[in-house]
């Protein structure tokens, strides 16, 4: 069983690591690790040492890609790897699920509703 001082979600990850025989130990930090840059700063390592997870849609399936925090994804290479005609970010769903204050609470909404209630501004920031 893992360290009881860990958040329950982090404890589940630690337990899964132990069951798999992986040597890693989950570290719970006071600083944010929400972005690759944040995680690198909090750990005192290079951004390239951080694994970042991205979700893409390739034809009819969703895939999670893990790559170095310093890297950018080549979507054409990913499409070829998947045998897909193209890949795209999943940003056009009718219903999206958003975090609701704890790591294991979510609520359904729409993109438009989220912009209205946040309040937030919409923009395109892709390279």
Short description:
The protein is of the alpha+beta class and 127 residues long. The protein has 4 helices and 5 strands; from the N terminus they run ααββαβββα.
What labels describe this entry?
4 helices; single chain; 20% strand; alpha+beta; 5 strands; 127 residues; 3-stranded antiparallel β-sheet
Structure description:
The chain is α+β, with helices and mostly antiparallel strands and 127 residues long. Among the domains are: 48-90; 92-127, no CATH class. It has helices at 8-20, 36-43, 75-82, 111-117, and strands spanning 51-58, 61-68, 87-88, 96-99, 106-109. A three-stranded antiparallel beta sheet has the order 2-1-3. Strand 4 (96-99) and strand 5 form a beta hairpin. The longest helix is centred in the N-terminal third of the chain and has 13 residues, at 8-20. It is globular and about 40 Å long.
Please give the count of helices.
Answer: 4
Spatial separation of the terminal alpha carbons = 44 Å
How much is the radius of gyration in Å? 18 Å
Q: Strand sequence of the main sheet, in spatial order?
A: 2-1-3
Strand content range = 15-25%
If you average the pLDDT, what whole number results? 78
Unreliable residue runs: none
| Pattern of helices and strands | HHEEHEEEH
Proportion of residues in helical segments: 25-40%
Overall strand count: 5
Mass-distribution shape: globular
Query: What's the story with the biggest beta sheet?
Result: 3 strands, antiparallel
Q: Which structural class do you get from the secondary structure elements? A: alpha+beta
């Amino acid at each position: 069983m893992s360290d009881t001082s860990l958040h329950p979600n982090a404890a589940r990850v630690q337990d899964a690591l132990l069951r798999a025989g992986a040597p890693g130990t989950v570290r719970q930090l006071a600083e944010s690790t929400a972005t690759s840059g944040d995680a690198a700063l909090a750990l005192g390592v290079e951004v390239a040492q951080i694994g970042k997870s991205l979700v893409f849609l390739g034809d009819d399936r969703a895939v999670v890609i893990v790559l170095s925090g310093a890297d950018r994804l080549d979507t054409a290479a990913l499409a070829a790897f998947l045998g897909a005609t193209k890949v795209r970010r999943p940003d056009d769903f009718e219903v999206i699920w958003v975090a609701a204050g704890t790591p294991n609470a979510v609520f359904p909404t729409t993109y438009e509703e989220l912009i209205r209630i946040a309040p937030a501004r919409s923009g395109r920031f892709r390279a």
